[in-house]
Amino acid sequence: MAQAGTPVVRDGYLHLPNRRRLRLGSAAWFAWLQTASRFSYHAPDSSRLTVRKEQRRHGHYWYADLKHDGKLHNAYAGRSTALTPERLAVLAQQLQQKRRR
Q1: What's the CA gap between 92 and 84, in Å, rounded?
Q2: Collapsing DSSP states into helix, strand and coil, what is residue 9?
Q3: 3 lies in a domain?
Q4: pLDDT in tens, 69-95
Q5: What gap in Å lies between CA 92 and CA 88, rounded to an integer?
Q6: Facing residues of 68 across strands?
Q7: Beta-bridge partner residues of 84
């Protein structure tokens, strides 16, 4: 579950706490990712991922997490430029498959 004030991606838009919306894949979306550290992704299949940015040796990278029955499943999401709507949908599918194993 997302923490209070965590931006939420749902229905093709990023919903920010200040009631502003950004369309996924837009220039504003990619600019926002440069300064963001996390967001919640609500997939069409009702799964909810936490997507977080980590500092690594060669830059920042995003990872997606799905918690189910007390077990954490995660997947590499990529750099900010890779976080397209299609990539987020694929991540949700991958993590749902891991959850079912």
Answers
A1: 13
A2: strand
A3: no
A4: 889 999 999 999 999 999 999 999 999
A5: 6
A6: 71
A7: none
**Nearest 5°: phi and psi at 9?**
-100, 125
Q: Dig out the tokens for 64 from the structure.
A: 């997606």
What distance in Å separates the CA atoms of residue 91 and residue 66, rounded to the nearest whole number?
Answer: 10
**CA gap 64, 92 in Å, rounded:** 8
- CA distances from residue 35 to 28, 31, 32, 53 in whole angstroms, order as listed: 11, 7, 6, 10
Q: Are 29 and 16 in contact (CB under 8 A)?
A: no
Count of domains observed in the chain: 1
Residue type at position 59? G
pTM of the predicted model, to two decimals?
Answer: 0.89
Domain assignment of residue 22, given as a range:
8-100
What letters, b where the CB count within 10 A reaches 16 and e where it falls short, cover 49-85?
bbbbbeeeeeeebbbbbbeeeeeebbbebeebeebee
Q: Tell me which DSSP letter residue 46 carries.
A: S
